[in-house]
Amino acid sequence: MNAPLPEVLKQHLIDPEICIRCNTCEESCPVDAITHDSNNYVVDSGKCNFCMACVPPCPTGAIDNWRTVLRLEAYSVEEQFTWDELPAEKALGVNVETPAEAAGPQVQAQVQELPLSEAVAGAQVPPWSASHPYVNLYTHKNPVTATVAGNYRVTELGTDSDTHHIVLDFGNVPFPVLEGQSLGILPPGVDANGRPHHARQYSIASPRDGERPGYNNVSLTVKRVTADYQGRPVRGVASNYLCDLKKGDPVQVIGPFGSTFLMPNHPGSHLVMICTGTGSAPMRAMTERRRRRRGQGEGGKLMLFFGARTQQELPYFGPLMNLPKDFIDINFAFSRIPGQPRRYVQDVMRERAADLALLLRDPNTCFYVCGLKGMEAGVLEVLRDVATQHDLDWPALHQQLKRDGRLHLETY
Ligand SMILES: Cc1cc2nc3c(=O)[nH]c(=O)nc-3n(C[C@H](O)[C@H](O)[C@H](O)COP(=O)(O)OP(=O)(O)OC[C@H]3O[C@@H](n4cnc5c(N)ncnc54)[C@H](O)[C@@H]3O)c2cc1C
Ligand code: SF4
Ligand code: SF4
Known about the structure:
Helix content is 23%, strand content 22%. It is of the alpha/beta class and 412 residues long. It has 3 domains: 8-113, Alpha-Beta Plaits (2-Layer Sandwich), CATH 3.30.70.20; 144-257, Elongation Factor Tu (Ef-tu), domain 3, CATH 2.40.30; 270-411, Nucleotide-binding domain of ferredoxin-NADP reductase (FNR) module (Rossmann fold, 3-Layer(aba) Sandwich).
C-alpha cells in the first residue's frame, strides 16, 4: 500500500526586499491574515485562505510569493518578521498544483464564496484603453539616482500644511511612467533598529511626457509630516527629507509602481477626480495630460472635487484657477474657513448629484479617489446615494465599475 503523501502547503509570503511597506495588502485582506511590525509585512499561514484579494492591489508584486513547505514546518509570523530576504524554495519532492488546491476542499469552497471583485471596493484592473505601464524597473537592490531639478512650496506660507512640488530628473536613465503611477523614495540613513530606511511611496504628479514636456523628469507633491495620525509631534523621515532637498541634490528612487490606477485614453472618455491634499498629485498628472492633448480627439469631461482645510492649504490653488472653465469642472470643498460651515468633498458631490448620475450612467466615465484614508467610505456612500436617487442599481453598478476598471481608490 502507498504511504500517504506528507501534508504540504504552498505558503503565501511577502518578499521583504521588494515590499515598500505601503499597507495596501493589510487593508485588502478580508480575513486579517496580513500583519506587520516595524521591520516586515508578513502573512499568517494559519489564517490565509488564498482568496488572492491582496495580490492585484500590491504595487510592487512583493505579495505574490509562494513557497512549498510541509504544513507543520510553515514559516511562523515571528520568523518572517526577522527576514531580510525570502528563504530559497526547499525541494520536498511533492507537487502542489495551486495554493487553493494545496489548502484542501474547505478552503477552495471559501475562495469560491468570496470572489475577488467583492472583497475590495475599487477596481483591480485598469480601464480598457489605458496604456501599458512599466513597473518595478528599480528595486531596493538597484535603485536609480535622480537629481532634484526644482523644489517649491505649493501651499501658502503661514499655514500648517507645508506641501512641496518637487521635480526629479532622471537624465538619460529610463524611468517611464504613466499618470496615476507612483514611485518609491529611499531616504538616506537608518531607522531605530539600525536598518536602512524602507522606501516611502509618492504619487507622480506629472504626465507621461515629463513635468517639462519632452524631458525625462517627474514631479511629486509632498506634504511635510510634522504630526502623526494622533496629532503628536513627529518628524516624518521621507517627507521632511524631500521637502528640504535643494536643486542638484541626488535622490535614490525605486519603481515605478502601479498598474491599475491609470487613465483611459479613448476619445470621449470622462474623468471624475475626487481628492484631498496630496491626493491631488495623480489628478494633476491626468489633468495636465488632457490639457496638453486638448484638441487631439481624446476630449471627454473632466470633473474635479478637491477638498482642503482652507484655500491657502490647497496645493496648486493658483494654477487650478487658471484652467479654462470649459476644460475642467472644478468643485472645491473647504472645511476650516472661519465663520463658514465645514464642507467636505462628499457635501459638494451631493450638490452635483444630477451631473454625477449622468456620468455614472456613462460607460466612458472613470472615477478616481485619492487622499486621506477616511474619505473612501464617505465617497462610496455618496456614489451609492446618487445612484439610488437616480434609479440606478448601485450594487450591480458598483460591481460593473470594478469589473470595467472604472472606479479607482488610492488612500493613505
Ligand atoms: C499609494 C501611496 C501614495 C502616496 N502618495 C503620497 C503623495 O503623493 N504625497 C505625500 O506627501 N504622501 C504620499 N503618500 C504617503 C507617503 O508614502 C508617506 O507615508 C508620508 O510622506 C510619510 O512618510 P514619512 O517618512 O515622512 O513619515 P514616517 O517617518 O513614515 O512616519 C512618521 C509618523 O507619522 C505618521 N504618518 C505617516 N504618514 C502620515 C501622514 N500622511 N499624516 C499624518 N501622519 C503620518 C506615521 O504613522 C508615523 O507615526 C503615499 C502613500 C501611499 C501608500
Ligand atoms: S508593497 Fe505589497 S506586500 Fe508590501 S506592504 Fe505594500 S501591498 Fe503589502
Ligand atoms: S490571499 Fe487572501 S487571505 Fe491570503 S493574505 Fe491575501 S487577501 Fe489575505
